[in-house]
Amino acid sequence: MNQITLLIVDDHPLFRQGVVDALSLETDMRIIAQSAAGDEALDLIQTKKPTVAVLDVNLPGMNGQQITHQVSQERLGTRIILMTGYDDIEQAIHAALAGAHGYCSKNIEPQSLARIIREVAEGKYVFANNVFTKRELELWIEEKMEGARRSYSEPGTPFHPLSEREMEVLSCVVRGMSNKEIATLLGISHQTVKNHVTAILRKFGVEDRTQAVVYALKRGWVTLRDTDISIGTQE
Known about the structure:
Layout: E1 4-9, H1 13-24, E2 29-35, H2 38-48, E3 52-56, H3 64-73, E4 79-84, H4 89-98, E5 102-105, H5 110-121, E6 125-127, E7 130-132, H6 134-152, H7 164-174, H8 179-186, H9 190-204, H10 209-218
Parallel strand pairs: 1-2, 1-3, 3-4, 4-5
Antiparallel strand pairs: 6-7
């Protein structure tokens, strides 16, 4: 039986060691690396090519969402499971859009995490305690967003408070792009991108990029099709 090779990434040493210790008891799994920082985690994925990487969403350097997006863009074989201390459906959707194969709370039982890892290693997607095929995940996201959009919909063309350039930046944010990637794509400075993102958060009255993405998707100001997002490009 082929072992599932694992990378564990979390900037809290005690929690990370707990995950490592728990998964080390699983005979079909082998931990080949661990890390506390996002940039190092991406390097480890590129060089060691683990079957599955279990990443904290909030990491120093690159965060879990950005790493997931990069892995998806490079079409690396590693499948990503994102873990968070603040579990909610909006973050789960954003994780799926970034290309993650799984998403779960840090409160999860070790046996449940091992089960999710096995499902993901087999090519399935695990979100909100559901196991999906690629197509089922796409339908789940569309259903969640369509239901939310109906709650916020207004007659006629939906109004949005953003400038044309801010809408371009927002579309890039929805795609999971970093500020540096957005600056390169749009031909503007890194600081200008930061200013636009700050303005978007202020106008939406939200605290972070994930909330801004869901806010805009719910109101129909951007759609999944507009962003050319492909769920889980790794096969």
